[in-house]
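Bug report (template v2)

What were you trying to do?
Predict the complex of my protein with NAP.

What happened?
Run completed; filing so the output is reviewed.

Input:
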Amino acid sequence: MRKTLIAADLKLGRIGLGCMSMSGGYAPADRDDRESIRVVHRAAELGITLFDTADVYGPFSNERLLGRALRGRRDSVVIATKCGLIAAADGTLSRNGRPEHVRAACENSLRRLGVDAIDLYQLHRVDPDVPLAETWGAMADLVVEGKARALGISHATVPELTMVHSIFPMAAVQYELSVWTPHLRDDVLPWCQDNDVAFVAFSPIGRGYLSGNLTGIGDGDSRTGDPRFTADAMAANQTIVKGVRSVAERIGATPAQVAIAWVLAQGDRVVPIPGTRTLRWLEENVAALDVRLGPEDLRELDALPTATGRMRWDRWRSTDSFGRRFTGL
Ligand SMILES: NC(=O)c1ccc[n+]([C@@H]2O[C@H](COP(=O)([O-])OP(=O)(O)OC[C@H]3O[C@@H](n4cnc5c(N)ncnc54)[C@H](OP(=O)(O)O)[C@@H]3O)[C@@H](O)[C@H]2O)c1
């Protein structure tokens, strides 16, 4: 494996495992808890330390699954979970950054995961209705009390990152980063590098699309309604898949491996967390650590056309560049 990344004493490694899809986010009909547990065990055998979940995945069942899978392996892994997003009974998501919610959410996550402390506790979304310093202060109290070992945040703007980092240092920022969502290289990634903060890169395979294997989206799949996953966008973005495949064929790798290797090539502080619930894909993804992209490969991937379909994450922040507030998901 490449040099392991250690942030705030957490051994994050160079690649982690995203566990969201194990609890039905994508292709819910294919959910298979027993196979997912085998995937978690194999990941640990392959040297993966970072396992990423959230209370809202499932909701709640993903934390329970991960807790079950990691029983007996507690000391060799880094459990990362998140709070701050709430799922209503109809599946609608809303944000909650109130200190009392953060405290209760942490207690509930500890119980579901079956641990005394969460290694990396992340704020899933900034709640624009609650001063961020109050949310972060409540999370910092959890570290002081030993209920969390380190803090992270997802979808915060650079001014928000700077502000919370000055209140209580963060170990990791979590954001989408991939061949078809390279934008964070302009602001958040340099901020992480300057501040020695890890960048946990989610959806490195573009929610499966960049592998070239995805032909359609079925019922109940959370990608439904994502502007990148309409039939038109999926057809238009085949140019990107073709470009990734062309590099993959040249260097003897798979498209998914090239997508992950591109994320790894963005810097030593970047830790991709590809998600899978199949052993074959897990092994393929971990083997991306041995795939080296040369300058010509990277140039070719960087020159691929801008993807069709507005990205979601720009609305997952608290405000846009005009100061408009976002409260939904
Ligand atoms: N902070 C946030 O707001 C946020 C948002 C989204 C995700 N995340 C985190 O990031 C993790 C990863 O993101 P993601 O799951 O959205 O996207 P991803 O890793 O880009 O893609 C996962 C999808 O690709 C498929 N896949 C995985 N490896 C493959 C391979 N080698 N060949 C072909 N297909 C492959 C998976 O299928 P199977 O599952 O069927 O194996 C799954 O449908 C999540 O698990 C979650 O922990 C965080």
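What did the reviewer find?
The longest strand covers residues 148-154. Residues 18-21, 26-27, 30, 52, 124, 154, 174, 202-208, 211, 213, 256, 273-278, 281, 284-285 surround NAP (CB under 6 Å).
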